Amino acid sequence: MASSNSSNYKLNAAIEKLSCTDILPYKLENTEATCEFLKKVVEVLLDFVRSTNNRNEKILDFHHPEEMQKLFDFSIPDQGLSLQQLIHDCATTLKYQVKTGHPRFFNQLSCGLDIISMAGEWLTATANTNMFTYEIAPVFILMENVVMTHMREIIGPNWKKGDSILAPGGSISNLYAFLAARHKMFPNYKEKGIATIQGQLVMFTSDQSHYSVKSCASVCGLGTDNCLMVPSDIYGRMIPSELERLIIERRNRGHIPFFVCCTSGTTVLGAFDPINEIADICHKYGLWLHVDAAWGGGLLLSKKYRHPRLTGVERADSVTWNPHKLMGALLQCSTIHFKEDGLLMSCNQMSADYLFMQDKLYDIRYDTGDKVIQCGRHNDIFKLWLQWRAKGDEGFEKHMDRLMELTEYMVKKIKEQPDKFHLIMEPELVNVSFWYIPTRLRKVAHSPAREQELGKLCPVLKARMMQSGTLMVGYQPDDRRPNFFRNIISSAAVTEQDVDFLLSEMDRLGHDL
């Protein structure tokens, strides 16, 4: 593989000293120079793709921030630099970038580098269009409509006539659900504001849910104290009886319960709240049910693993589902789906005539900008559409099943080495939670004191991983435990051999701690 040294990506002498104003769109006659520049950029990118998929390459070349600032020229110049310098900048940037698509990167929920989705993102950047009207994105708008309808059909047959939109991340998707739920219960809130509501609104979510749910309460004026954190069981699942107890308690205080978020795939443990039992409670008390399946939604594509994890999802009012996680689409690619059509538009529409004219020559129902609070939207659909065309439903199902089977393999391997690893629980998703046990603690009986000691070692072992560059696995505490490792398998590049390497490398790096 070529290194980031600019000599490895040398432009020819005739154009290396040219600037951005010497090529398209400034100089129409310089198409050849433009093409050579872009080909060199693509060469840099392809070398990074090769390196990312090469197990002999490091995942990262780690440097502390103060060191990185000395290694890399981040400055903004007074005068523009040459095309050759820009090529060098591209190569150097990727030299120090973490290879999140590396088969031994197990650090985040979003791992992997899907080549088809990446190709789609390249085309998206080249097209460089907004997604707020059919007028400027006709193909992409129709694409989004088809894919979102298909995703709703997968959620449930009674969802086909609903509505969906791509949003900038799962947090904003959850916010859309909150806004729609409030609008459904209090349609005058949009014009009249808080005075419309005669009482304190309260919402409910698991104490293991994503922080963005609580953030909705802050951003939208409820206050975080009015986002009730429902206790979970030892597996991280919301306890329905506790939800009902809190609803009754707040109703008795004169408050207005209106929204419940059920998590399908918690961030840390990968737990699935019991949707049907929660749906029964929401139906009983007239509450909106939102399912945050940002992480676990991919399992909707698997006949083998969909049930019982997502059983009852079709009873929800809204569902967040992030293809950039389990499905492996490139960041960002987050969707929010509603069972009821028209609610998004009714909730968010501002009817700005200078953007959303009503007298256009086409069917303005295909203009999506007025459905959302952000107006302009990045094109996140093409990479997903292209990826789905490449895999088909069957291919995605095989991908989901493969990730789950690799997780089962890892659990099996951990159990075979109880002296070196302590499995915290059987995973429901691809989150494997465990402690690594160094040599000095292997004959010590497991206890809360030992857990505290193992927790202290997690950041030290993680630092060694990053300094060696051979492996990345995330760690964190939760409300029951000190630090523990949370391994994620969501990349199509991972094999059983990579799982074996992961466990042996942790032991190599940490046995003497």
3D structure, described in words:
- This protein is of the alpha/beta class and 513 residues long.
- Helix content is 40%, strand content 12%.
- The protein folds into three domains: 6-99, Aspartate Aminotransferase, domain 1, CATH 3.90.1150.170; 136-190 and 198-378, Type I PLP-dependent aspartate aminotransferase-like (Major domain) (Aspartate Aminotransferase, domain 2), CATH 3.40.640.10; 389-510, Aspartate Aminotransferase, domain 1.
- It has helices at 31-52, 65-71, 83-95, 115-127, 138-155, 170-185, 189-192, 211-219, 240-252, 275-285, 343-348, 381-415, 448-468, 496-510, and strands at residues 105-106, 163-167, 201-206, 227-230, 256-263, 288-293, 318-321, 334-338, 421-423, 431-436, 472-476, 484-488.
- It has a seven-stranded mixed beta sheet, sandwiched between helices. Strands 1-11-12-10-9 form a five-stranded mixed beta sheet, with helices on one face.
- Helix 5 (138-155) runs parallel beside helix 12 and helix 12 crosses helix 14 (496-510).
- It is globular and about 80 Å long.
- The model has no long low-confidence stretch (mean pLDDT 94).
Strand runs, count: 12
Low-confidence runs: none
> CATH superfamily of the largest domain, please?
Type I PLP-dependent aspartate aminotransferase-like (Major domain)
CATH topology of the largest domain: Aspartate Aminotransferase, domain 2
Total count of domains:
3
- How would you describe the shape? globular
Beta-strand fraction estimate: 5-15%
CATH architecture of the largest domain: 3-Layer(aba) Sandwich
Instruction: Give the topology string: H per helix, E per strand.
Output: HHHEHHEHHEHEHEHEEEHHEEHEEH
Mean pLDDT: 94
Query: What percent of residues adopt helix (DSSP H or I)?
Result: 25-40%
